[in-house]
Design a protein that fits this description.
The protein contains 22 helices and no strands. It is mainly α. It has three domains: 198 residues, Growth Hormone, Chain: A (Up-down Bundle); 56 residues; 225 residues, MFS general substrate transporter like domains (Growth Hormone, Chain: A). It is globular.
Length: 507
Amino acid sequence: MSRPTLRVGRADARPHEAAASAPARRQRARGAKPGAVLGVVVLGAAMAFIDATIVNISVPSIAAQFPTSPLSSISWVLNAYNIVFAAFLIGGGQLADAFGRRRVFSLALLVFTSASALCALAPTLAVLVLARVLQAGGAALLIPSSLAIVLDVYPPERRVRAITLWAAAAAAAAGIGPPLGGLLITASGWRLVFLVNVPIGIVTLLAARAIVPESRRPGRRRLPDLLSEAALSLSVATLVLAIVKGEEWGWMSARTLATLLASCVLGAIFLTRCRRNPGRTIDPALLRVRSFGIANGATVVLAIGFYGYTLCNVLFLTGVWQYSILQAGLALMPGPVVAMAVAVVASRPIERFGHRAVIVPGALIWASGALFLLLTAGEQPDFLGTLLPVIILSGIGAGLTFPAVSGAAVMSVPGERFALASALNAVARQVGAALGVAVLVAILGSSAEGPGALAAFRQGWTFSASCMVLGGLACLALVLRAPAMGRARSVAQTAIRAAEPRAPERA
């Protein structure tokens, strides 16, 4: 009778391998300062999240650089990044778990930094789009490996705070993209938006090699099932492509429907191979973990509201209030600052009362900011009386909500699945971002300028507020307290082990 097939992180991995690897990992991590490691990996991840939003405000400047290219072609500078970023996050998490978190993190920094330099030097639009694809590939490796590194160096009792800080930095980075882009473009032009990543990336790479300890999932290394990996990546890519291009193609056009159908077929192929292939990419049992599914579903809905709301505010400030790009960026700056400060404080009530006790009120506070803007904003600029209170409310809500919902998703699964869980949550956020922008553009249509602009923006704020309320209410189904989350992880680990197939025995 043969032994069961052994795989990376399997529950039935050799006991002596797990026993030998765990003390070794703890010994390597013991010499590292968790705070310093957190600072290094957050800096790397922040670059990836900033570049997911900073180009929104850079599009007019890029269009001026390439005047013969239509807007539909210019938009691929943004679309290419979002599609590739979302599609390859899962593979990035798996590679980090299997081949070493620091190794993959360092490789990601190298790719991202080199691609940023190529973006800054791009002589043509085609080269710029290609560089953005490479940049997104580096970002897709950065995000899951960075969070997995943090979780490996922090002891279990401090992981909630560590996850909250990491997620807060990610949310602040995404929010700071537009104002930072406005400053850089005003100072020099759109190329500086990409060039600034080069020195930051080099410093982060050197710091990672000096400070960050190496770690990976215990057990024997095994390459992923390449067919299922390709099917998953293409499924996500075609889904995001349909969301991004749906407004241009027409939501009921043959191209949009064919792209959505292709996404469904590829997703079905992936799930089938996950069930049948021992070298699968994702355990189906992981997707059936209740808290994990709820948190990721809420992430999609909240991201739809957040990214739609952010774009709506930028367009309102520049279109109705006639703010310059720099003025609009500076006006929005208090939001991410408040979000970061609130997220740091929010880690304590999460540890004491659980994630939903923070997510639900945070989402409602966030929605109240959008509703306040809906009721008070007029055609005449009013920063102090209207916009500043809204930005503060939105910052408080975002600082409470996004870090907590990301933490709930990651902490609801067994420890050896942390990198993969963070990748899935980031995919949920990016898909929500693409959908939020697409729906907002459909709501505004051609009414973003002219006499009916204010009414159109009010519809956009109503849509965003509705998503925030819906996402928050969905999290009422999450567990209440941190000890219950620990029990949920134990149940999830048991379910995952029970669902893993065993190799057939030979006579």
